[in-house]
Amino acid sequence: MTNIDVFNGDADGICALQQLRLHQPLESRLITGIKREINLLKRVSAGSGDRITVLDISLDKNRSDLCRLLEAGADIHYFDHHYAGEIPHHTRLTATIDTSAATCTSLLVNNHLQQRFSAWAVVGAFGDNLDISARKAAAALNLTEPQLDQLRRLGIYLNYNGYGATVEDLHFPPDQLFINLHPYADPLAFIQESDVFTRLKQGYEADMEKGRRLQPEAETNQYAVYRLPAEPWARRISGVLGNQLAREAPRRAHALLTRLPDGGYVVSVRAPLATREGADTLCRQFPTGGGRKAAAGINHLPDREVDAFIARFRESYG
Ligand SMILES: [Mn+2]
Questions:
Q1: Second label for 11, Cα 20 to 30 Å away, from 128, 180, 198, 259?
Q2: CA 16 to centroid of ligand 1, rounded, Å
């Protein structure tokens, strides 16, 4: 019998697994990747008696492999908050899926574990830019405001680490990051004792400084469009810069187009924080698009579709 943990390589995916493995430590194969690599079940082979936990990746985007693994006899536990489409009925599938804009996978796992490792759920929620939900989940922990701010920054840095065109762009491969976190039941102890936090902070600050110098190529009260160059810092920063811009102008939608080395763009869309609507429906109009209502993206937008994308972005939010 093999245990396989499949998780998105961002803060939410890592913090969801962190809670589950603090609750139930076990030897498992870790399957993860950059934040945008979501068809992770494709990489899994398993059979009768194997147990697979799947965290923070769209069921809809993994549907055929999910069915293949269920047919092969694996038991699958699925937690997620991305668009799922119809959830297959199968005796060996347990799915906890909630696509409401105010929740995330770490918070779903937090409920499942009766708030046992809430502090990690708070980190995951901050990483997904769900500050209000994160603070709500933190209320019972009686943290000081500086402690809460440390959790928020850890969430932002872990989320930041997930962005890149390949794992080579990242400061830490996400499975290594999880292995580093795993000994710590308390994220504040991790922040104090591990040098990972400092290294992420330095990388984040250096990249953000470059990002802050960018000017939008289109800007109104309703929306802004940014174009980023084909460089590793830009690929690392696009998502967190989008979150930051969204927090600074909560009534405005943001689109960030980051040039890819082989042509085309990777796109991040942030709906206005005031409404948190429409980002996923916009991005799903393009073949490699997906995400959530408030935050979505397109993995590869060909050059010839850039104008069409910007036109639909303006229609959605203009
Ligand atoms: Mn998430």
A1: 259
A2: 9
